[in-house]
Specification:
Radius of gyration: 23 Å
Distance between the termini: 44 Å
Oligomer: single chain
Largest sheet: 5 strands, parallel
Helix content: 25-40%
């Protein structure tokens, strides 16, 4: 996958060159292209912002530098172009899975008080990572790129890992344990040591449902759960053994 990022601060994206994403770039599974759109400013002062027509506080990003920077990517009608904006659609695992299927993405990272509205015409997606405001779109873009990239085949060492992550099936992930079996008088659940794969599967499903019900109950509202899971949810709600 090719990912281009239009930003005023390309140096902020150094973390993407480390860990799994760094290895994915070395293997040519992932290509991250950083573009400083200040380089495409139309005057010698490299101005990329200006005061809003009609008055108001703050400065807006001008359309020319961003349009000119986007033009360098070439024509690809299948490219998804994401603008980071607090008013956008909330980013979640389902969106990450959708975007991980694409061949090319481009992110436009805002700053100051926002964008000249004509910049939105470049976007296929306007996305927010949450109901809060940060100083620019770079942190949101990095979060999205990490979440999307790890779903691309070959990026994770264990291909099964992404499928068991929290939210991948609409539920929070079940608790997990490793050695030692006993630490500080805290013991690994016996079922995980039993070697009985069916009981382990049932335990993990129950624990996943229980964590979701206790910590994020709203996630259960829109799920079409199988009868086995529905029975477990009823038991969890009534605080009875399943």
């Amino acid at each position: 996958m090719k990912i281009s990022v239009l930003t005023l601060f390309p140096e902020m994206f150094t973390p993407l060159n480390t860990s799994l994403l760094g290895k994915a770039q070395e293997k040519a599974i992932l290509e991250i292209n950083l573009i400083n759109f200040r380089d495409f400013a139309i005057n010698k002062h490299q101005q990329v912002d200006d005061t809003p027509y009609g008055g108001g506080a703050g400065m807006l990003l001008m359309p020319q530098p961003i349009y000119r920077a986007m033009a360098t990517l070439g024509d690809n009608p299948k490219r998804r172009v994401i603008i980071l904006d607090p008013a956008g659609q909330r980013f979640d695992q389902k969106m990450a899975q959708s975007m991980a299927q694409e061949q090319e993405l481009a992110f436009i990272c805002g700053h100051y008080e926002g964008y000249d509205h004509r910049i939105y015409d470049l976007a296929t997606d306007v996305v927010s990572i949450g109901d809060f405001v940060v100083t620019g779109g770079e942190l949101g873009a990095m979060v999205m790129i990490d979440a999307i990239s790890r779903l691309i085949p070959g990026v994770l060492g264990n291909t099964a890992s992404a499928g068991s992550d929290s939210f991948s099936k609409g539920l929070l992930e079940y608790p997990q344990y490793t050695r030692p079996e006993v630490y500080d008088n805290k013991v690994v659940p016996q079922v995980l040591l039993s070697g009985n794969h069916e009981k382990i599967r049932q335990w993990r499903l129950y624990q996943s449902l229980k964590r979701t019900y206790e910590q994020r109950p709203e996630l259960l509202q829109n799920l079409d759960l199988p009868e086995e899971a529905q029975k477990m949810v009823r038991a969890i709600k009534n605080n009875v053994p399943c």
